[in-house]
Specification:
This protein is α/β, with parallel strands linked by helices and 437 residues long. Helix content is 38%, strand content 21%.
Length: 437
């Protein structure tokens, strides 16, 4: 069985939704994972924010505006009266529920339920569409088998235990549809796998049933060797290893959710990144194998803050770095890059919600300097210790740009450099010319 995930743009209009059958093969065993229709999750976030703030009037107006969009969507997707009626029943139910929240106490629990409505709508409407054209399919409720544990980590054995019996109940069916992103938490409440989590859902399902392959369908033909939004002449990468893909996803390649690589990697499930708008394009295959002796791609991550802690107490002192890291652990703030010298440590973060408290605690160790508005540029490829010349080519490509930090040797797959964000576009273009032209 294959897992096929389609993002919001792939189901962003009735026309796009109907064209999924150019890709989905009802005669092959497939689980189709759908995101919410593009724009829906943003609208639901807005609705939830108004309700949380107590502004029931504006929240209700947003519910009505989104409802009207779905009424039009249903008319275009389901022109036949019988199925249009079914579609209207679905949206009336979901938007009736949303409208009713204006009269209740609204907490973070209700917020998660609101955010789940997008995927529930897209999958149910697609299931009705398939029924309207005579294509057999089974709608599988993700809330019946997607679950996170007490640490908010996905519970893959739970998914295996509850999903496989559902599939076996419908042995005569080959096409299954389910929701991306949504799940239940350890308390049984509706929750989610965070934004972009539909990729994660697909990878988790692939791991849970040991699928033949996971396919992530988006609006770009695979992962490119640079950011096509700012660099001309980028090309899709034919093959990446899981480690290389994870580095690129974490450091800015938007096509893939960073966490979605790990379940497939652990259970050795190949992942393909493919283009809904150009189904014949080869895309990118992600497996345990990688082409050796090549630089694969360049990515950049914005919104980076650099922190330098300078202290004479670091000199020959053990336990110093542990105490520094404990500060960030207390405030649940991940660290991206780190470099050290005998008397200083520099590191970067991209979450600054607790920055003032972090700085206050770090000042007990020594002098603290903070630099904002930086970007991490990450070059991914074969940087194993036996290789030579690649790192020098990276630095040569940036010789005219001030570099704040360099991280090399922490992985066999990347060199990361910290620069001011104002130089990011120039850095990406210069590296592209140096490494790929």
């Amino acid at each position: 069985m294959k897992i096929l995930k389609f993002g919001g743009t792939s189901v962003g209009s009735p026309e796009r939704m109907t064209k999924l059958l150019d890709i989905v093969n009802p005669n092959e065993e497939q689980i189709v994972v759908l995101s919410a229709v593009s724009g829906t999750t943003n609208s639901l976030v807005e609705i939830a924010n108004y309700f949380l703030a107590g502004d029931k009037k504006k929240g209700s107006e947003c519910v009505e505006n989104l409802y009207q969009k779905y009424k039009t969507f249903v008319v275009e997707l389901l022109p036949a009266a019988e199925f249009q009626e079914q579609g209207n029943e679905v949206i009336d139910y979901h938007f009736g529920f949303l409208a009713g929240l204006a009269n209740d106490i609204f907490t973070s629990i209700e917020e998660k339920v609101v955010l789940a409505q997008g995927e529930l709508l897209s999958t149910t409407l697609y299931h009705i569409y398939l029924k309207s054209i005579g294509v057999p399919s089974v709608l599988l409720p993700a809330l019946d088998f997607m679950k996170t544990d007490e640490d908010n980590e996905p519970d893959i054995p739970f998914t295996t235990k509850h999903l496989i019996p559902l599939l076996e109940q419908h042995k005569d069916n080959k096409l299954f549809i389910t929701q991306g992103y949504i799940c239940r938490n350890s308390f049984g409440e509706v929750d989610n796998l965070r934004r972009g989590g539909s990729d994660y859902t697909a990878s988790l399902l692939g791991a849970a049933i040991l699928a033949e392959e996971v396919q992530i369908w988006t609006d770009i033909d695979g992962m490119h060797n640079n950011d096509p939004r700012v660099v001309k002449g980028t090309k899709p990468i034919a093959q990446l290893s899981f480690d290389e893909a994870a580095e690129l996803a974490y450091f800015g390649a938007k096509i893939l959710h960073p966490q979605s690589v790990f379940p497939a990697q652990k259970y050795k499930i190949p992942v393909r990144l493919l283009n809904t708008m150009e189904p014949s394009a080869a895309g990118t295959l992600i497996t345990h194998d990688s082409e050796k002796g090549k630089i694969k791609s360049i990515a950049a991550k914005d919104g980076i803050t650099a922190i330098r802690i300078q202290s004479s107490r670091m000199l020959l002192a053990y336990g110093f770095l542990r105490r520094v890291f404990e500060v960030f652990e207390r405030y649940k703030t991940p660290i991206d890059m780190i470099t050290t010298s005998e008397v200083a440590v520099s590191l970067t973060i991209d979450e600054t919600a607790h920055l003032p408290q972090i700085i206050e605690e770090l000042e007990s160790f020594g002098t603290v300097e903070v630099d904002t508005d930086h970007s991490i540029v990450c070059v991914v490829g074969d940087f194993g210790s036996e290789k030579h010349g690649f790192a020098s080519r990276v630095l040569e490509g940036l010789k005219h740009i001030p570099i704040r930090m360099i991280s090399y040797g922490g992985s066999n797959y990347n060199v990361s450099l910290l620069i001011l964000s104002e130089y990011k576009t120039e850095a990406l273009r210069s590296l592209h010319n140096r490494l790929f032209e």
